[in-house]
Structures are given as structure tokens and as C-alpha cells.
Amino acid sequence: MDIQKNTGRRILNQKGFSLMELMIVMVILGLLASLVGPAMFKKLGTAKQGTAKTQIEMLMTALDSYRLDVGHYPSGQEGLEALVINPGEDKWDGPYLQKGLPKDPWDSDYNYQNPGEHGEVDIYSYGADSREGGEKEDADVGSWQ
Q1: What's the domain count of the chain?
Q2: HSE-up of 27 (CA within 13 Å, CB side)?
Q3: 35 lies in some domain
Q4: Considering the domain boundaries, does residue 34 fall inside one?
Q5: What family is reported (predicted)?
Q6: Any domain includes 21
Q7: In this model, does residue 4 exceed pLDDT 70?
Q8: Per mean pLDDT, which range of 2-11, 84-93, 132-141 is the poorest?
Q9: What is the DSSP string of 39-98?
């Protein structure tokens, strides 16, 4: 019986945080978020640029395999689709991409050009703004870079 009385008395004597203490903690958390948040968003843009470069390299490797089998890169009309679906080539030994054509990190299709301006073929993404040119996350990412 003494144990039950002591336990009940301890619960009644406990105090919580005051409203002022909770508000101070919230202000401190808000300040930390405002300092850390922008730095994290910059990293996100850089990571998307890196992802686009990696995907373009993967697409170029698949195109090279296609060319080794067929004897030439896909024409502009066939484009990157020829890596997944046979465009009617006898020596086609695909699909050259097991998971299908990827979208760029900004959910747009990659652009393909044959003949390319910078090489035999060009693959590129216009970046976050989906327009030619730009800086930082809006910058174009291409196979020639």
C-alpha cells in the first residue's frame, strides 16, 4: 500500500515544461532550420546534376553497344527508343537498357541528336528550367562535358 501512495504522490508532484520554455525551443529550432535548409537545397541541385551526368554516361555506353551490334548509331527519328525497342535492325541484340529509358532528374526526356554538334552523337538535358543555357541547377548537362 505504501508503494501505491508514493507512486501516486510522485505523479502529482511532477511538472511539465512551461509555454515560454516550449516557445524558446521552437525559436531555436526555427533558427537552425533557416541556417541549414539553404545549404541542403544547394546540395540537392548539385546531386541532380551529378545524376544527370551519370545517366548520360550510361546512355552513351548503351549507344556504343548498339553501334557495335548494328554498325551505326540510331538515326534521329529512332532516337534513344532504339535502345529499348528494335527499330527494325537485323543485328539488333537489345534491349540495351534493362529498365527502359530513364527520365532526367527533372522528369524530362533526354534529348538525342545524330549527328551531334559536339561528337558523333549528343545526349543532353536542359536542366531544371527545361530551357537551353542556364546556370547552376538550370545549366545544361551534355555527353560532351
Answers
A1: 1
A2: 6
A3: no
A4: no
A5: Belongs to the GSP G family.
A6: no
A7: no
A8: 2-11
A9: HHHHHHHHHHHHHHHHHHHHHHHHHHHHHHHHSSPPPTTTGGGGGTS--S-TT----S-T
